[in-house]
Specification:
Largest sheet: none
Order of helices and strands: HHHH
Radius of gyration: 19 Å
Shape: globular
Helix content: over 70%
Length: 137
């Protein structure tokens, strides 16, 4: 595979990822608006509806990741690490309330895991870039 086609595929993947991120941001805004209008809880949704959304998201994620060619794996991981920074913002909001409850604990766990993912991604990316550097003798 020549470098030009890899660059073109990376550009297309980045554009697709940006579009998905914009759609996710719009959906998150809509969900937040619905949550605020319903009093801050998920009364409008049954457990089965929320669970169905979760399972569908798992399937979509699985098929998206497995359809990526190995050459595009690193750019995709870079985008997912960027998405983790958005997760941290949401987790900080969840961990913010003064009272100790389940959402605060889960928000703290989300902040911790997303931080590990972000910083680990930076470390792996730096190591990969060092592999492409020319060695000076």
């Amino acid at each position: 595979m020549d470098p030009a086609s890899i660059i073109e595929q990376s550009r297309k993947l980045a554009e697709t990822a940006a579009g998905v991120a914009n759609q996710a941001a719009q959906l998150a805004g809509d969900a937040a608006q619905m949550s605020l209008s319903s009093g801050g809880n998920a009364e409008g949704f049954s457990f089965m509806a929320l669970f169905t959304i979760f399972v569908l998201a798992c399937f979509i994620g699985y098929f998206v990741v497995w359809s990526v060619t190995p050459a595009l794996h690193s750019p995709l991981m870079g985008v997912t690490n960027a998405i983790s920074s958005v997760i941290i913002v949401g987790a900080l909001v969840a961990a913010g309330p003064a009272d100790m409850n389940f959402s605060k604990i889960m928000g703290f766990v989300a902040v911790t895991l997303a931080s590990v993912n972000i910083f680990g991604g930076f470390i792996v990316t730096q190591r990969m870039l060092l592999m492409f550097k020319k060695k000076n003798k």
